[in-house]
């Protein structure tokens, strides 16, 4: 039986002092999951679903409990990168829209098929009673009959951030807008700002790399994902978004 505990010491955490507008100072612990990502050595070669799950499980295996209220995975930290549209197929799961569906994959794993990673993440959040934010590939079926932008293979493939509440419920889904050499994924046909609310710090906005000129509004904390990159535009993301964020004083 799989264990959903936080069991190994590879998590970095920091305490943030947040000054909420119209509220007293609030403290919460935000943790970032940092690990040496195990990559697929042949990302251009399609895998069977079982092999893809085994690969992703290696990147989900170890954690450390440090009393966090919210835990954030980096971009590409579960599945890796450099896939083609065909080779990423076995890593895809269909993430339902939490604005339309209320669902805890951990509590109700049989509701949707082929959602093993969603269930794993949901159970981590539920067992450890924290908000959990992760990045994963998402498949959304579509039809040219109703959507002229639908890809020829009948599905959108998105670089996606998912957010689970501390009871394991899926509360947010964000599709990356500005892709950066990501042949496996589609640009969402509509730009959408995504937020979720926590009991410890109010609302958070979700962003991913290459989003200069974008912020979720003046009353949001910002969660910003960045895959490893040693040059612009990646290295300027944090500096750009910090002034827009409520955490700027932290």
TrEMBL record:
Instruction: Give the reaction(s) catalysed.
Output: biocytin + H2O = biotin + L-lysine
Record's SUPFAM superfamilies? Carbon-nitrogen hydrolase
EC number(s) on file? 3.5.1.12
GO terms for MF: biotinidase activity
- Tell me which residues make up the CN hydrolase domain: 28-250
Keywords per UniProt: Signal
Give the range the annotation lists for the signal sequence: 1-23
User: Matching Pfam families, A to Z?
Assistant: CN_hydrolase
Name the protein family: Belongs to the carbon-nitrogen hydrolase superfamily. BTD/VNN family.
Function, as annotated: Catalytic release of biotin from biocytin, the product of biotin-dependent carboxylases degradation.
What is the protein's given name? Biotinidase
Give the source species: Electrophorus electricus
Lineage of origin: Eukaryota, Metazoa, Chordata, Craniata, Vertebrata
């Amino acid at each position: 039986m799989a264990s959903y505990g936080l069991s190994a010491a590879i998590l970095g955490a920091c305490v943030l002092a947040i000054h909420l507008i119209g509220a007293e100072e609030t403290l919460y612990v935000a943790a970032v999951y940092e690990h040496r990502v195990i990559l697929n050595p042949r990302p251009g070669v399609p895998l069977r679903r079982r092999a893809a799950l085994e690969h992703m499980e290696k990147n989900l295996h170890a954690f450390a409990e440090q009393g966090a209220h919210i835990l954030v995975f980096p971009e590409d930290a579960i599945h890796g990168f450099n896939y083609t549209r065909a080779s990423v197929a076995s890593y895809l799961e269909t993430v339902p829209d939490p604005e339309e569906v209320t669902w805890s994959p951990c509590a109700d794993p049989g509701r949707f098929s082929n959602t093993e990673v969603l269930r794993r993440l949901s159970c981590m959040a539920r067992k450890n009673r924290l908000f959990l934010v992760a990045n994963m590939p998402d498949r959304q079926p579509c039809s040219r009959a109703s959507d002229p932008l639908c890809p020829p293979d009948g599905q959108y493939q998105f670089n996606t951030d998912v957010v689970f509440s501390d009871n394991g419920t899926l509360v947010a889904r964000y599709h990356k807008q500005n892709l950066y050499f990501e042949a496996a994924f589609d640009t969402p046909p509509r730009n959408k700002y995504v937020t979720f609310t926590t009991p410890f710090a109010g609302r958070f906005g979700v962003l991913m790399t290459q989003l200069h000129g974008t912020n979720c509004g003046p009353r949001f904390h910002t969660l910003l994902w960045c895959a490893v990159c040693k040059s612009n535009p990646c290295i300027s993301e944090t500096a750009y978004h910090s002034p827009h964020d409520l955490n700027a004083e932290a």
